[in-house]
Amino acid sequence: VLQSLDPLPMHGPELGVQADDIDAPEIEQEPKQEVLENKDLHPSVWLSVMRRSHEARQKLLRLGIFRKVEVVIDTSRGEDALPNGLDVTFEVTELRRMTGSYNTMVGNNEGSMVLGLKLPNVFGRAEKLTFQFSYGTKETSYGLSFFKPQPGHFERNISVNVYKVTGQFPWSSLRETDRGVSAELSFPVWKTSQTLKWEGVWRELGCLARTASFAVREESGHSLKSSLSHAMVIDTRNSSILPRRGGLLKIHQELAGYTGGDASFLKEDFEIQLNKSLFWDSVLSASLWGGLLLPIGEKPTSIADRFYLGGPTSIRGFSMYSMGPQSEGDYLGGEAYWAGGLHLYTPLPFRPGRGGFGDLFRTHFFLNAGNLCNLNYGEGPNAHLKKLAECIRWSYGLGIVLRLGNIARLELNYCIPMGVQSGDR
């Protein structure tokens, strides 16, 4: 379902201009020496300084307010210099006070063009004010966000977003427009990343086509959702696109109705992924995800809050979100689901282009399975598990995967869908 706009890093050519940019050309300075002249310095001290300087440089770059950060290490000089002392100098080049960007985004089988305007350091403590407009094949959005980290602890931050999102969902013959505001608090705990969020959304649902089913027409109209949510993420993967090792754990809870609005539910979902490098440069990846939506009170859940399954991002061989409960060809989503996948990635046969362009391609063997349904909450857990285990959809096949840097992956697969039920596409 539609999500709020998060503060996104800006890429692409910068459009901002400031007075400093049109001053006289800089005078070329003498090259700086990064060679230690003090022979009495212990190697372990030198290595420790190098390591800590690198960590500090990474923290400065992570703030997103510097264009360049250079480190110069030399022996201490001057009247106050200590014996065997070191001077560590950080030379930084700040970003412009206002930057602009344009880029494209690919995800969830959809492409979009994104225009952005950002003030990267509003009050001098790495606060960011961002305006973003996105026009996509299924979704158009714009929003304003303010991001503020805690000084000295960039991982602890707050953000406030105001947005409007209009999305089209052809598998449900549905159009949704969200106008909302949200506030988030992010912080690390041990090896996890935690996020607390409040969101208030005015939702407007309408029919995308005249042929929309009566069940979708019944859902049309306005609603107000006010919800509190919590997310926990542990990510040890070396890459989010084609990982070779590590794991991922995501747990998300959302409670709506207790802070206002006319939508009342409890929503839980999770995702687990494990990756293991094998022999012959191959990688085995296993994933499992699922969710449960519990209505609170007598009002049924909304089509905008339910889960959807099917497509290249979940169960390959089925059309995008086109399985499970449906009415007259329109898919209505489900209140419970599970899905899993087993993938084997290997180099291309005979390793063409090894060490170069050929390493971007991988052979892909996969097995996907899952189910999506509605539950009768008057029944017990055993009845729920039995229903989720019935009529399992699954598919298998093979193909080729192309990695596009660290932003996306393209797949060309031959899929054989199995366990197809009446109404599935």
Automatic annotation (TrEMBL):
- How is this protein situated with respect to the membrane? Multi-pass membrane protein
InterPro entries the UniProt entry points to:
Bac_surfAg_D15 (IPR000184), D15-like (IPR039910)
Single GO BP term: mitochondrial respiratory chain complex assembly
**Gene from which this protein is expressed:** SAMM50
The residue ranges crossing the membrane are: none
What protein is this chain from?
Bacterial surface antigen (D15) domain-containing protein
**Lineage top rank: taxon:** Eukaryota
GO CC, alphabetical: mitochondrial outer membrane
Q: Quote the subcellular location field of this record.
A: Mitochondrion outer membrane
Q: What is its main location?
A: mitochondrion
All copies of the Bacterial surface antigen (D15) domain together span: 121-425
Q: Where is this region: Disordered?
A: 1-21
Q: Supply the alphabetized keyword list.
A: Membrane, Mitochondrion, Mitochondrion outer membrane, Transmembrane, Transmembrane beta strand
